[in-house]
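User: I'm putting together notes for a lab meeting next week and I want to include a structural view of one of the chains we've been expressing. I don't have a solved structure, so I'd like a prediction I can at least talk through. The sequence is below, exactly as it appears in our construct file.
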Amino acid sequence: MKYEVIEENGFKYIEAGKGETLVLLHGLMGELSNWEATIDHFKDRYHILVPILPIYELPILTLGVKSLSKYVFKFIKHKKLSQVVLIGNSLGGHVGLSFTVAHQAHVKALVLTGSSGLYENAFGGSFPRRESYEYIKEKVAYTFYDPATATKELVDEVFKSVNDRSRVIRILALAKSAIRHNMSKEIPKITIPVSLIWGKQDKVTPPDVAEEFHQLLPNSELNWVDKCGHAPMMERPEEFNEYLGKFLNRILLK
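Assistant: Thanks for the context. Below is the predicted structure for the 254-residue chain, given as structure tokens.
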């Protein structure tokens, strides 16, 4: 990752650019580097913040989507921001939804890509063969349309996490919390503009999940990225950035 991680007041984050603020939220197994192509593309026009969600720091008894949403609220207050565009992938989208339901006045617009919150078919309730590098490699590759997107660096990071006992307990606890925290009744309350940017071949949050989000969100648009899995900003960054750029132009440059 070529961007420096800033540490202050208990927060860790990346910051780049100036202008309207975009807050990028990573997924459960996501790294900040997942957003690198997005940061590169938009940093000349927007103020970009990528907080590290404290998945491995929060007390395990309170670890969940809502506690991560509260952390994002504290972070936005710390940065003295009044309104932001939230952009979330996977669990990060779920956190963005939870934040928006609780603090809609602080959100100008929301972008979801492969978001949980309705349904997800992730790693399941355990990692039965977590000691097997090939097994973890297969699981990471499952996330993408093109298995080659699962680089050795990415697989190494996931393998390290799931073979650290304290980390894997937290990962599984948070995954179960996300599955329990279904937001179908709360989502229609979100009236700000929402852009759904979805991989057509997403096996973790399949296309019908995107369709359901689109039906439930009263002010939403749905954009499909073909030959793409669960993380369009990584697998098809040019198409993702094009859809995101058009949405931001429409919402922020009125």
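A couple of points you could mention at the meeting. Strands lie at 6-8, 11-16, 21-25, 47-51, 84-89, 107-113, 194-199, 220-225. The mean pLDDT is 91.

User: Perfect, that's what I needed.
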